[in-house]
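Tip: read the tokens left to right.
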């Protein structure tokens, strides 16, 4: 808990279609590295039945990125809704 209280938790629930789209993007490897990273973050954070429901810290460690990158990605996804990673 920081000075502003507990960290916000952004819940990601991907539809099967959105999961398929993100997985396809990752498997083809076509796209900017930052977009592929965002796709991986969203897939790991997914709390739907197909999702692994990883914690933010676990995602950051597994993808070798910072916790702030994970939180920023999830916050942007939450704020803007689904458009693209």
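Filled-in amino acids:
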């Amino acid at each position: 808990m920081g000075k502003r209280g507990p960290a916000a938790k952004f819940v990601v629930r991907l539809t099967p279609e959105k999961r398929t789209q993100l997985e396809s993007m990752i498997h083809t490897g076509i796209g900017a590295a930052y977009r592929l990273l965002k796709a991986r973050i969203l897939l790991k954070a997914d709390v739907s039945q197909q999702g692994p429901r990883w914690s933010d810290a676990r995602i950051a460690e597994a993808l070798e990125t910072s916790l702030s990158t994970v939180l920023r990605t999830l916050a942007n996804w939450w704020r803007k809704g689904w458009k693209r990673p």
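The two ends are 28 Å apart (CA to CA). Residues 67-80 form the longest helix (14 residues).
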